[in-house]
Design a protein that fits this description.
alpha/beta; six-stranded parallel β-sheet
């Protein structure tokens, strides 16, 4: 085994002559509070990023924060948590939560965006570095376009896909436009965006059960501070670092990062 620092004291490469699962098991059993990504060296740098938004590229679940303005956050947040753990059907859970918001003044959306939505640490650096190196980045969210589009623009994504909250008379109608953007759409987006690429060239990152199909399909599927069902199945887990860890995973040292303005 040979090793070398990517960034001294922060990120290192360790080269193993054993199967990936065996290497990962050995390292995870030996190192505490360290994020470990085991992968082949060939094809390590990715050309396409497919990313979830809520609790991945931003620090909150937007629907839970909207619910807070309606005085319903505990009820709706409980449904969100169960859905992200894979305990509820995503589409049914989304319909149930949005229905509870019927009659909420639509102006609250912009207020929520301004007051509650914070970009996740490392998100801008991750996306801007990958796109500066010729990659493409797509945000695909089970949340809402009114949040996803400005978030994608601020971070630097090439494209954003999300659900449309329906509004009637300046109030939330309690419905979303069909078809719902859920797990199937996330997988379909990855497949269509990667049509001219080897699957190895794709990295997908998310935290909830509706992210699992795209995480499984990517060359490197990453569970980011994720729910247990996702962490158990993903090829890589980031539990301790911010999103810039995904640049180290691609072999990109800090000196080559594009820092957020």
């Amino acid at each position: 085994m040979a090793d070398g620092w990517l960034d001294e004291g922060d990120a290192a490469d360790l080269h193993f002559g054993m199967a990936p699962d065996a290497a990962r098991g050995a390292l995870e059993g030996a190192l505490d509070c360290v994020d470990i990504v085991v992968q082949a060296m060939e094809g390590r740098e990715k050309r396409l990023l497919i990313a979830d938004m809520d609790s991945t590229m931003i620090t909150v679940e937007c629907i839970d924060e909207l619910a807070d303005y309606a005085g319903l956050k505990p009820q709706i947040a409980a449904i969100t948590e169960a859905a992200m753990r894979g305990e509820l059907d995503f589409e049914g859970a989304l319909d149930a939560r949005v229905a509870l918001l019927k009659g909420l003044d639509a102006s609250v959306i912009d207020r929520c965006l301004a007051e509650r939505v914070t970009i996740m640490a490392g998100a801008k650096t991750l996306v801007r570095t990958m796109t500066a190196r010729g990659g493409r980045a797509v945000l695909v969210s089970g949340g809402f376009t009114r949040f996803a589009e400005p978030v994608a623009a601020e971070i630097g994504f090439d494209r954003a896909i999300a659900n449309v909250l329906e509004i009637e008379g300046g109030m939330l109608a309690g419905t979303v436009t069909r078809p719902i953007v859920g797990a199937a759409t996330k997988l379909e987006t990855l497949e269509s965006e990667a049509a001219t690429l080897l699957r190895l060239a794709v990295i997908a990152v998310g935290d909830g059960a509706n992210d699992l199909p795209m995480i499984r399909a990517a060359g490197l599927g990453v569970a980011y501070h994720a729910k247990p069902i996702v962490a158990a199945e993903a090829a890589a887990r980031i539990d301790h670092n911010d999103l810039t860890a995904l640049l180290w995973a691609q072999g990109i040292a800090r000196k080559d990062w594009i820092s957020a303005a």
